[in-house]
Each structure stands twice: as C-alpha cells, then as structure tokens.
Amino acid sequence: MKLIFTFLILSITVTNTFAQSRKTAGLLNEINGLYEVDDSGNITYVRVFDNLNLTENEIFDRANSYFVYKYNDGNSVIQEKNEEAGRLIGKGIFPNVHIGSGLVTRAFSVFHILRVDIKENRCRVLLSLTNYKITSTDMNGFVSTADQPISGTFPFNPSAGEKNFYGQAFYNSHFAAINTFIEFERVLREGATFSGLDDDW
Questions:
Q1: Which residues, given as ranges, of the chain have pLDDT below 50?
Q2: Which ranges carry the DUF4468 domain (predicted)?
Q3: Tens digit of each residue's pLDDT (9 = 90 or more) over 100-133
Q4: Torsion angle, CA of 157/161/167/173, rounded to 10 degrees?
C-alpha cells in the first residue's frame, strides 16, 4: 500500500513538472524576439518616442520628474543627470515580479538600468535587465538571498537548472519592462507625474 501511495505522489509530481514545462515554454515563445542581449549580457529593450511636440528642456523636465518619483529608495538611484548632454540614467529594481513555490519558495526581484537620451521633440529610452535578487524561503522558514546575473539563468543559459522558476520569472520581468515604457511615455506626452499630480495647477 505504501509503495502504491509513493508511486501516485511521484506520478502527480512528474505530471505537474511536465505541465509546468509546457506552460513555461509557451510563455517564453510568446515574447521571443521582443528583447536583445547586449554586449554586457544584459537583456535590453529600446524605444524611441517621436513627435512629442516639446523642446529638449521640456522633455528633460518631464523625464526627470519620472526619475524623481520612481528612483527614490534604497534600491533605486539616479546615477547621472546631465541636462546639457540631454541624458538621464537611473538604476532601480522591479520588486517581486515572480514568486515561485515548490519545496522552496523563491521571490524574484529584478535590478535594471534605465537610460534616457533626449533631443528636440524626441527621446530614446534604453532599459536593461541586469540581475535577479532572489529571496528563498525553505520549508523550515529559513530565508536566504542571492544576486544572480539574468544572462546566466534559463532561458539565456539553456543548460541552467530550475527552468520553470527562471523562465516564468523572466516572462514577468519582460512585462515589468514593457509597463515601464508605457508609464514613461504617458509622463512624456501628458506631462502628468503620479497620484493625480500634473502640470496644470
């Protein structure tokens, strides 16, 4: 009887593992080709926003307001603010983009670099995902943290382990990046900042 019970548990585990693998493969296929790996091994996205109907100084002010509100805690910092060159660079974190459960529960946050280059009436935005900050909690409640380059994990390293954890973490990281572009463009075009605050007061 004990042998049958063990076999059933093993069968369910194997079935769930394969189901998750198919799910992960489908998610990654959905976003394939929508990002690039740069020379430093970072996962990078580039967007150019044209026809802003704004001067270079106006674009800089609106971009700067985005950085001030979004890069203002211990994990986020404005690294460069150069109005003369029309450039802003910030390093930040997308917190808890994915939480995966198993024998160990892992919460994935993503460090990223956001760079904005500004010209009259347009700007280019580069967003690079660099590292995962992983907080792991085992069945006994023991918590550990690790910092891992994304390029060393699945799907960028096909031989890396725990494909479901990392594949789904990257899928969610991808959409955190896309949502950043959406929010940043809204600030550029509408002049709004956050929480109902805008330029018309």
A1: 2-19, 196
A2: 47-132
A3: 988 899 999 999 999 999 999 999 999 999 999 9
A4: -80
- Tell me which H or E stretch contains 105: strand 105-119
Work out how many domains the chain is built from and give that number. 1
Domain boundaries, position 163:
34-190
- What is the C-alpha to C-alpha distance for residues 105 and 17, in angstroms, rounded to an integer? 16
Instruction: Say which amino acid occupies 161.
Output: G
User: Using an 8 Å Cβ cutoff, are 97 and 110 in contact?
Assistant: yes
CATH number of the CATH domain containing 43:
3.30.530.80
* Cβ–Cβ < 8 Å for 174, 31: yes
Residue 124 belongs to a domain: yes
Reduced to 3 states, what is the DSSP secondary structure of residue 98? Answer: strand
pLDDT for the residue 103? 86
Strands 36-37 and 122-137: unpaired
Amino acid at 138: D
- How far does Cα 87 stand from its chain's mean position? 21
pTM: 0.83
Q: What is the pLDDT of residue 198?
A: 53
Q: What are phi and psi of 61, to 5 degrees?
A: -60, -40
Instruction: Please give the pLDDT value at position 5.
Output: 39
Alpha-carbon distance of 197 to 201, in angstroms, equals 9
